[in-house]
Structures are given as structure tokens and as C-alpha cells.
Design a protein that fits this description.
The structure is a homodimer. Chain A is an alpha+beta fold. Chain A is about 40% helix and about 15% strand. The first copy, chain A, has three domains: about 5-65, Arc Repressor Mutant, subunit A, CATH 1.10.10.10; about 75-140, Winged helix-like DNA-binding domain superfamily/Winged helix DNA-binding domain (Arc Repressor Mutant, subunit A, Orthogonal Bundle), CATH 1.10.10.10; about 145-220, SH3 type barrels (Roll). In chain A, helix 2 packs across helix 3. The longest helix of chain A is centred in the middle third of the chain and has 25 residues, at about 70-90. Chains A and B meet through helix 4, helix 5 and helix 6 of A and helix 4, helix 5 and helix 6 of B. Chain A binds a DNA duplex through helix 3.
Chain lengths: ~220, ~220
Amino acid sequence: MQKTSPPVQDYLKTIYELTREGRPASTNAIAERLRLQPASVTGMLQRLAARQPPLVTYRKRHGVQLTPAGRRVALEVIRHHRLLETFLVEKLGFRWDEVHEEACRLEHVISERMEERIAAVLGDPLFDPHGAPIPRADLTLPQREELPLTQVPGGSRIRILRVPDDDPALLRRLDALQLRPGTEARIRTQSPLEAVVTLEVAGRPPIPLGYPVGALVFVEVLS
Amino acid sequence: MQKTSPPVQDYLKTIYELTREGRPASTNAIAERLRLQPASVTGMLQRLAARQPPLVTYRKRHGVQLTPAGRRVALEVIRHHRLLETFLVEKLGFRWDEVHEEACRLEHVISERMEERIAAVLGDPLFDPHGAPIPRADLTLPQREELPLTQVPGGSRIRILRVPDDDPALLRRLDALQLRPGTEARIRTQSPLEAVVTLEVAGRPPIPLGYPVGALVFVEVLS
DNA sequence: TACTCTATTTAGTCTAGACTAAATAGAGTA
DNA sequence: TACTCTATTTAGTCTAGACTAAATAGAGTA
């Protein structure tokens, strides 16, 4: 297996995320996520597909998927990222809205040895501070039932499992509202037409969340 | 001040080390340290001198020196490197021969915020595990008297202050011989002609060190 | 004063990964 | 069946930082 550069690792990570639901990732979607021009993405996809071994399967105008080799690289980088986020919060006193950017740079340069040491001092955590699953050393992912907040029926009691990690302003806001992994709440109203879900947390004023945000908050249904 | 790339930071760090004694660093010396071709170094020196602000002063065929701006970058990177080495040993359980390479990659990507956090959890250390001085946040260096082992008269009692950090095999050997910063010893013989200095550590067999190694071990003279 | 050796520089090339501008495939519409 | 729109690709360019091969400056020597 050849060494991969930071840009290559970023592409693979992005493709991994965009193909979670099984469908190929489009050139434009990748370009948007990475803030690159689509033409640059096309060039890189061709190179990724031409590598030995190929890291993606690329059908012109139909998008890309990861090969097993590409998925391994992606999961390795994601493991680094989430272990680092956890480490920065737990051991270095970072706030949870500060760690994404730092982890995005460090994830490409830490050795396997360092990955192993970080995992060890953290006690091999399975979830990062935002509730995202951390791939294990063998690259398998801890599985659990999770549903976006937008798909839970009104009236349900829920526990927050996961929030997005890449928007510092949103994270500060969620923190101020005490909406963190572990927080329990009731769905006061679920209004698809208005695209708002309203949460009620133990005796505090109701919290309305628009669907663009609600779709990124994953929860488990308690009752 | 423009952002500097990892290669640029490596050049500046190397030039800093090569110019410690005040004389300009030669193209070849830099090439050798960085394992690059001299022609590549010439190209980079021209670019470093042409930057705004210039990071080096470069006189064709006479070598380079750092400008104040270049020195600041070098010291910043060296601070990162030595804080990281200390952190990896103290907090992540690395051995002292494992940390140099890891620090060489991390030093280019950690944020000022992370530098600050690492320094804080370590209690703002002034020396790294190999005894090298860590530039303070204001980039001043802790000063102390130190002499290479090769320049201490025979019979002196000494304390080891500093060993080189970049040779893992040598570090393992020194560790096995219990020659670490803090170790006290007596100079049993100092033989410039044979180029050997022999140390005696509290009731253990004498340890002969050749001058190429002895010149890299810095000590303070106790008596 | 010309000669030689070594360190250094110049000239030209390559690669990865970005870019812009122009071309085009294919889906959906008139 | 031709037309239009959008996503995507192609073609060509740029930059940093490496390389090799050839030229040369300057120190030291004959």
C-alpha cells in the first residue's frame, strides 16, 4: 500500500462520508465539501482511480465509490481525527468547538504509534466528544441505532447521541443550550411543513431547531 | 508575516542550527542536513531571500544567515519541536529515542493554541527530554553554561546536561549506559590524540566515548 | 600567470495538486 | 426530433519544491 498525501486523505474521507448511504459521490458534492473547483476534483478522481491499488472506482459522469483499499485509508484517517478530537478535549482542555480544525491538520501526520498511545491513554474510547463513532484499531465501527432529530415523532422522549463537529458557532450554541450527547429531551412538536422540531429539556424553555440543523443531530428514542 | 510551509520551516530550522556560532551556513551543509541536492538548496535560498519580508540574507557563494523574521520562525518551530518531544515522553509514554521523528512532523501543523496548551500541561518546561533548551513563548532561550564533553579536562567531575536527539540508536545506547541529562560522572581520561574521552559513573565500569559522539554531549563542570 | 579542484550556481525538467476557460454528455423540455 | 440547461470533463496553465546535467567562481597550487 502506497503512502497517501494529506490532500488524497481528505478526498477519501469526504467520499467516505458522501457515500454512507450507498450511492456514489458526485464530483460537485466533493468539490463543495472540500471547497475546490469541480475541474480539480475530476483530475484527482482520475488519479485516485488510476493508482495501484485503485483507491476509488470512478465512472465518468456517474460519480465515485471507495474501493476496499480506499475505505481502509478513509477509516484510518477518521480514526485519527476522532481520537485526536477526544484527546484534545479530554487531556489538553480544548473546548469542543475548537478541536475540529486542529484534528484536521494533525490527522494526516500522526504515526500509528502515536494513534495507539492516544487510544491507550483515553482507554480506547468508542465515541468522540461530539458523539461520532471512532473506528476501532481493526477499522470496524461501533454500531448503534440513531435517527436524525427530524425523523422522530412528536411526543417521543429522546437522548442526544451525536452532533456535527465542523461548525464551531453551532457547537457553541448547542453547548449554551445544553444540547450535548447524553442530554435527554422530549420532542414537543415535530413540524415537517414548517421544517421545525421543538425540544423540551427538563423544565427549561422549549428549543426550536430548523430542519437543516435538526437533520444533523442524531438521537436514540427512549419512549 | 506570511505563512511558511513545512519545507521552508525545515530550512529555517537547519540554518538556525548551522549558524549558532555566528558564521553563515553553506549551501552544502544545509543540503547534507536536509538530505537534498545542493542545487535544490540554492533555489530555496534564493526564494527565502526574495520573500517579503526576507527570511534570510543570502550572498551568492558566501552562505546564508537568518533575518530577524527568519529567526522568529525558526525559534517558533524549535519551540514546537521541543515541547512536543517533552509532551510525547511525559504524557504519552514514548521512549526518548522515538520522539524526534514524530515531533519533526507535528511541529509544522500544531496551532499556537495547541502549543500553549501543551506548554501549560507540562508546566512550561525549559528543557526537553534530551536536555535541549525550549524557547519560551516570547522566543527567548534559557541560557546556561555548557561544554562539549571533549573540552573538559581529565579528572573533572561533570553533570550531563544535553545529548543529541536525532539518532535513535545512539539514544538507546546512551540510555543503556545510563548517560542521561542529570547523570553525574568523572572524566577518567581525556585523550585528544586518540580522540577518546572516558567517563566513570559511580562504581560502574569506565565508559569510553569517541570524539564524534563526545562532541555532541554537553555537560556542566562540577569541580 | 595559467591550472585545477571543489563548492556552488544556472538551466532545464518533473510532479502533485490546484486553477480558468471552453467543450460536451445526458437529462429534461419544447 | 431538435433545444436547453446543468453537471462534468477536457485542455491548458501555474506554483512550490524537488531533481539532473552542465557551467562557473574562487581558492589554492604549479
